[in-house]
């Protein structure tokens, strides 16, 4: 395993929730603090090519989600300053329209929490009710 861990929960703490465990073991535990009851779930590290790519399996049994993250160099200078930047690409394998109707708005919610945290805002001010059920039909339609 080629993981380069951050201090436990440092980066994910204010955005998703803190994690614990040893990434070099191939699994950590992630607490989802924005979810009702702040549940924890196992995160199995399926692939880690630090700092460019990670693939994980989140959850257990039939409730396991496969998630991918990739950092790509963007040499277009789209930020207006010229030069290179980075693009963070996140993806999840979903085939069921009903799952997409709930998971899609969740992605929007967590991405906005990330943006808030990175721009000096307060992720706790992001309200899931602004995303779901209002975006459910859009995401259901992507697979329906």
Provide key terms for this protein.
alpha+beta; 28% strand; 6 strands; 144 residues; disordered N terminus
Question: What is the compact description of this entry?
Answer:
It is built from two helices and six strands; from the N terminus they run ββββββαα. The chain is of the alpha+beta class.
Strand order of the largest sheet: 1-2-3-4-5-6
Multimeric state: single chain
- The rough form would be described as globular
Q: Cα-atom Rg, whole angstroms?
A: 16 Å
* Number of helical stretches of at least 4 residues: 2
Beta-sheet strand percentage? 25-35%
What is the number of beta strands?
A: 6
Overall description:
The structure is a single chain. By secondary structure, the chain is an alpha+beta fold. Helices cover 21% and strands 28% of the residues. Strands 1-2-3-4-5-6 form a six-stranded antiparallel sheet, with no helix packed on it. A hairpin with a 6-residue loop joins strand 4 (53-58) and strand 5 (65-74). The longest helix is centred in the last third of the chain and has 22 residues, at 97-118. The model is unreliable at 1-8 (pLDDT under 50).
